[in-house]
C-alpha cells in the first residue's frame, strides 16, 4: 500500500558509466500495469520528467547542548535530520527524529537533570541526497571523536520504539573492542528503565545514516528500533504528512529517547574504552 504515491529516492552512478534517468510509479499503478499486461493489452506510457540536479549550495547542521556537570568535554549526541523529499512534508522522515532529539534535551532541562557528560542535540542537514551534514560533522569534529561517548539517531518514523540497537566498529589503530561486554553493559544500563515502557529490546545493529561517518570512525552508534509496520506506506512520498503522526506514540517515543540519552550521558563509565 502506498496511497497511490510514487516512492522518491536518489541515484548513485559509478564513474565512467552513462547517467541514465530513472522514474518511479506507485505500487497501485504498477499492479494495474501488471494486470493489463496479463490480459494481453497493449500498454503505452507517456512520461514527462522535469527534475534536475543543481550545483551544491551551503547548508548547516543545527546544534544545541545541555552541558555536562563533571565531564563537559565528553559528548553523547542525539539526532535526526532536517531535510526531506519535497513530495510531502517529511513528517515521518525525519521530522519525528528531529522532535525526539530536541525533546530529549528539553526534557532533561525541564526536569532539572544535569548529566555527567554534555548532551549534544544535532539536527543534520542533507541526509537524503548526499549525507553532507553527517560528513561535515565528521570533518568539523574529527579531532574530538575520542570524546564522543555515543551517537544516537532516530530516522524510522513514529512507530512505537521497541528498543535500541548498538553499532560498534573496531578502531583502525589499537586493539579490537570487546563488543559482547559493551552490549552487556548497554543492556544493564538501559533495560530496567526501558523495559517497563515496552522498549526493552537492546541488540547489536545499525545506528543511522547521519551518525554513520563518526560511527564508522569508532564512535559507538545507537539506533532507535521503531515499529515500521506502517512506515513504508508513506515513506518518501506525498503521503508523508503531519496528520499521520500519532501524538501518544510521539510522547512515549520522546520519553524513551530522552531516558536513553540521559543515561548514556550520566553513566559512570563509558560503554567502550
Structural notes for this entry:
This protein has 273 residues and is of the alpha/beta class. The protein has a single domain (62-266), classed as Aminopeptidase, CATH 3.40.630. Helix content is 32%, strand content 17%. The protein is built from seven helices and seven strands, in the order αββαβαββαβαβαα. The chain has helices spanning 27-38, 91-110, 132-141, 179-194, 212-216, 231-234, 247-266; strands at 62-66, 71-81, 117-124, 148-153, 161-167, 201-204, 221-226. Strands 1-3-2-4-7-5-6 form a seven-stranded mixed β-sheet. Strand 5 (161-167), helix 4 and strand 6 (201-204) form a beta-alpha-beta unit. Helix 2 packs across helix 7. The protein is globular, with a radius of gyration of 21 Å.
Which features characterize this protein?
Aminopeptidase; 273 residues; alpha/beta; seven-stranded mixed sheet
**N-to-C SSE series?**
HEEHEHEEHEHEHH
Percentage of residues in helical conformation: 25-40%
CATH topology: Aminopeptidase
Number of strands: 7
The fourth-level CATH homologous superfamily is Zn peptidases
Arrangement of strands in the largest sheet = 1-3-2-4-7-5-6
- CATH secondary-structure class: Alpha Beta
Mean of all residue-level pLDDT scores: 94
Alpha-carbon distance between the two ends:
46 Å
Which consecutive residue ranges, at least 5 long each, have pLDDT under 50?
A: none
Q: How many discrete structural domains?
A: 1
Structure class: alpha/beta
How does the major sheet shape up? 7 strands, mixed
The shape, in one word, is: globular
Strand percent estimate: 15-25%
Radius of gyration: 21 Å
Number of helices: 7
What CATH architecture would you give? 3-Layer(aba) Sandwich
